[in-house]
Amino acid sequence: MRNGETQPNNERLYDLSALLLRAGNAVSVLLLTAGMVLTLWYKSRADIHSHSLLNAWHRLLRADPSGFLEVGLQMIILTPVIASLAIGVYALAHRQRSLLIPSLLVIGGLALSLWIGIAW
What we know:
Layout: H1 3-42, H2 53-61, H3 65-93, H4 97-119
């Protein structure tokens, strides 16, 4: 590949990853804010902590304040995972090993931290 052809693709990759990170952070901030407002509104304690991603989403759908808070925290963790997966898919599609190996390491580290955070 010529150097001129890779530059526009790298700009698209940068724009996509920046968009994913901004959108994920915005959604998590909205969920956390809604959870705090609902907790104050209902004067309830948000002391429920589930060890299942699915239980948190069920509580979110029931408009339980702890569901909003927990899913908001999950979104903070899942946002860089999704961005790293997008970079990994891009690297596979364009056969760029220099992008693939670091993205796999980041995905592995984030998955390990997610597993540790939920399991303990």
